[in-house]
Amino acid sequence: MKTKPAHISQADWDAVDSPELTPEDFAKMRPAREVLYEILPRETADELLTKKRGRPPTKTPKKSVNIRLAPDILAAFKSTGKGWQTRIDNALRDWLKGHKPA
User: What burial class does residue 36 get, using C-beta atoms within 10 Å of its C-beta: 0-12 exposed, 13-18 middle, 19+ buried?
Assistant: First the structure.
């Protein structure tokens, strides 16, 4: 990424990096489906144009479960922010290293 020189205004810098599109520019535009097959191999274009939904598949997907936790335990994990469920998962995994499940 280029660093803006101090003597150039932000507006001028932005105009150079991303000039405003004109009606003529819009008229020349074509759908990606048309253009990608002209500039990329078919397999690559197909892959880029394939709609992908949801999370990527995994060999060991996590299972959704209901679990009852003490309010203070739940509050402590939730207070750590996003990813608190993963941290509970990791805490249980650590516990299993030193204990045998019943």
Answer: middle
Domain residues of the chain, as ranges?
10-49, 62-102
Residue 11 is encoded by which pair of tokens?
């507006």
Query: Which pTM does this prediction carry?
Result: 0.47
Amino acid at 9: S
Rounded CA gap, 80 and 77, in Å? 6
CB 30 within 8 A of CB 39: no
The encoded tokens of residue 44 equal 């690559």
What's the whole-number average pLDDT of the chain? 88
Per-residue pLDDT at 81: 95
Write out the two tokens for 69: 């936790």
